[in-house]
Amino acid sequence: MPLKYLLPEEQIPRHWYNIIPDLPSPPAPVLHPGTLQPVKPEDLSPLFPMPLIEQEMSAQREIPIPEEVRSALALWRPSPLFRAVALERKLGTRSHIYYKYEGVSPAGSHKPNTAVAQAFYNAKAGVRRLATETGAGQWGSSLAFAGQLFGLAVTVYMVKVSYEQKPYRRSLMRTWGAEVFASPTDKTNAGRAIRGQHPDSQGSLGIAISEAVEDAASREDTKYALGSVLNHVCLHQTVVGQEAQAQMKLAGEYPDVVIGCHGGGSNFAGIAFPFARDKMHGKQVRLVAAEPTSCPTLTRGIYAYDFGDTVKMTPVMKMHTLGHDFMPPGIHAGGLRYHGASPLVSQLVAAGLVEAVAYPQRACFEAAVLFASTEGILPAPESSHAIKAAIEEARRADAEGHERVILFNLSGHGHFDLGAYDQYLAGQLEDFEYPHEAIEASMKKLPDVG
Ligand SMILES: *Cc1c(COP(=O)(O)O)cnc(C)c1O
């Protein structure tokens, strides 16, 4: 029998867990892109409504989740936690592998957890329209869905290469009422500038962010929404880890290691931060972020101040970065192609509280196919990095002659990524190591912060 741990609906968490007050040192200040001086809340108000700006900077450990947001979350939460018994058997491991499944949300990933919160606070503040970017389309579709729930129009700048490769994510966004453009567009100064320099530009998340930020900053009725990286996004995702803690209790175990894949850091933060709280209070638990070798932000990027976008319009944050002009190779884990990382996750990596690992994409697809053929769920290519890390943890424990309790976040399903699976199965996917020289060159363009 498969082992599945479910919580009753009333056990949807009532608070988000804010890690900031528990950090070993206060977070580095966020800087204004023009002056490179610390930003004030007003500086961010063209982009975000005040409650989200307050959450971004809050020192309050537990922030109540509004009832309207809990009701929206109840459409798919609490999400199930499984013990991967069939996978364990196939591996022949003595370790116990658990996964928290976030693919049960309407958009098929963890991203609606923050999309509904962000849409709620914007609607409450009288905002009519949201502008955002999306890479593979997971975030754009999550925000489109949340916009429908709270009566907001949504415009999505979708990285051009994904716009062309993932037509069904576009269909999903349009079905949920959103307007979708291939970025770079000719609708913004940022988009026109990039097209002027690189007429064949396939786009990048950094460029699409510039377009969405410009759109929001130049319209009174519009604000911006980001699906990862920022503190308030990581905060909203902590429902995942809090539920997982209660479910691990039902299973009668506590994890030795907690794993999430890492793009901008939000699903990792979601599962790991509540356990990081335990760790900072003396509990023995390892926290592992898994990323692709083609976009090795945490494992090979520099921990430094950098811009969040290509055209240098966003605030400057201290984070692991590959450089704001990073041009990602076309790997399929679209959601893991961002040059930067969550400042909070970066700080935990720098403090030695979080470990980072990187895997090439073919090894991750191999892990994904093994997972699909045992546990049944077809994972998102992004999530496959966490699966690969979990399998490696189990193998290493076996080699060392002990057993480990392993928990990972299965951040989404891969039903819109079947083109990538086809390519993998046809032997057409290549591994790619992001070149050292490209990182060196980008590091010369970091802002000069004293
Ligand atoms: C967007 C996405 C990611 C990466 O984003 P994080 O902010 O690092 O979580 C991972 N998995 C899935 C399924 C995604 O859609």
Describe the structure.
By secondary structure, this protein is of the alpha/beta class. The protein folds into two domains: 76-108 and 233-443, 3-Layer(aba) Sandwich (Rossmann fold); 112-226, 3-Layer(aba) Sandwich (Rossmann fold). It contains 19 helices and 15 strands. It has a seven-stranded mixed β-sheet with strand order 1-4-5-15-10-11-14, sandwiched between helices. A four-stranded parallel β-sheet has the order 8-7-6-9, with helices on both faces. Helix 13 links the parallel strand 10 (257-261) and strand 11 (286-292). Helix 4 (85-91) packs across helix 16 (361-375) and helix 16 crosses helix 17 (384-399). The chain is globular and about 60 Å long. It starts with a strand and ends in a 7-residue tail after the last helix. The structure holds pyridoxal-5'-phosphate. Residues 109, 111, 138, 228, 261-268, 335-336, 380, 382-383, 411-412 line the site of pyridoxal-5'-phosphate.
Strand content: 15-25%
What would CATH call the class of the largest domain?
Answer: Alpha Beta
Write the CATH fold name of the largest domain.
Answer: Rossmann fold
The average pLDDT score comes to 95
- Describe the sheet with the most strands: 7 strands, mixed
Supply the CATH architecture of the largest domain. 3-Layer(aba) Sandwich
Count of individual helical segments: 19
In this entry the ligands are:
pyridoxal-5'-phosphate
Gyration radius (Cα, Å) is 20 Å
Identify the notable features of this structure and list them briefly.
450 residues; alpha/beta; Rossmann fold; seven-stranded mixed beta sheet; four-stranded parallel beta sheet; 19 helices; binds pyridoxal-5'-phosphate
